User: Which sequence fits this backbone?
């Protein structure tokens, strides 16, 4: 961790670890978008990607990283929003 | 269109390698890699979820209510009161199941999923299959384990990124090729885990012998 306001988050995109630096005072979507760019997952709009923790709980990307209770080294999952058939 | 066999094998090996690199997470989720033989990966999912049963319970008149609970002022104190009590039923928990995930022709085609008995790898008939759900942002649940796919005639998982979804005539407008670079073996397993483990937590509500309701409990959201 390089400063008190920054932590390292690891985004997992289809099994690939993408570590990024996140600012505690910025919305989570800033780090999300950085991970997408660094991993070349730019074919779909950024807001089509959802962030979940390892227990399947969705995280609000507009919330600040600090207010979500995330810690240095936390692993998060990035997936495209679901299209589902079904009843 | 068939993909070159060597290309397909190379892509398969890359997907398997990525999956194995996430071994610690798979352990935590209760996901076991049972077999790997191109183009098939056999996976066993082990849920550890306890079924909840909610029953009506009558409170005798005059019973002291819990702290913080008050009745409306116009209620007759001698009126009969019922409340719903939820109990966990450990002996009715979910069963282990297997999934055969095929990467044949991946990534020209999406991964395919077939649900199987993990003891003999026979395909599970729909009548004995769990009901997996996608639960949306508003908490509404959609059953995504469906029967009688128009092409395979088998039960199937109807979720984007899964071959049976994209091959279904109702989703012909949601072509796999738009998503092929974003979905693979690990994301397929993640989809199965979210819908068939997290999305298969039933809460049976029995309001009377003739009124039984099953709600599907979404994973609780992180506090905002």
Assistant:
């Amino acid at each position: 961790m390089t400063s008190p306001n920054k932590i390292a988050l690891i985004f997992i995109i289809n099994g690939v670890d993408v570590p990024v630096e996140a600012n505690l005072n910025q919305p989570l979507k800033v780090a999300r978008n950085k991970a997408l760019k660094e991993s070349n997952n730019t074919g779909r709009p950024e807001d089509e990607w959802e962030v979940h923790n390892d227990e399947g709980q969705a995280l609000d990307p507009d919330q600040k990283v600090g207010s979500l209770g995330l810690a240095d080294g936390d692993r998060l999952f990035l997936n495209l929003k679901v299209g589902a058939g079904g009843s | 269109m068939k993909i070159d066999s060597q290309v397909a094998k190379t892509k398969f090996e890359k997907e398997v390698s990525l999956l194995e690199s996430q071994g610690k997470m798979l352990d935590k989720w209760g996901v076991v890699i049972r077999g790997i033989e191109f183009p098939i990966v056999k996976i066993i999912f082990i849920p550890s979820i306890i079924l909840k049963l909610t029953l009506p319970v009558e409170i005798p008149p005059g019973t002291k209510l819990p702290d913080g609970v008050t009745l409306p002022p116009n209620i007759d104190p001698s009126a009969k009161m019922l409340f719903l009590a939820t109990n966990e039923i450990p002996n009715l928990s979910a069963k282990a199941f297997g999934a055969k995930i095929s990467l044949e022709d991946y990534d020209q085609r999406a991964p395919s999923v077939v649900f199987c008995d993990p003891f003999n790898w026979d395909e599970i008939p729909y009548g004995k299959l769990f009901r997996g759900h996608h639960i949306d942002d508003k908490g509404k649940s959609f059953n995504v384990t469906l029967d009688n796919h128009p092409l395979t005639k088998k039960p199937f998982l109807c979720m984007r990124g899964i071959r049976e979804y994209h091959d279904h005539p109702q989703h012909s407008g949601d072509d796999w090729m738009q998503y092929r670079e974003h979905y693979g073996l690990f994301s397929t397993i993640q989809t199965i885990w979210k819908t068939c483990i997290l999305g298969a937590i039933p809460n049976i509500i029995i309001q009377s012998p003739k009124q039984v309701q099953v709600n599907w409990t979404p994973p609780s959201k992180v506090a905002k």
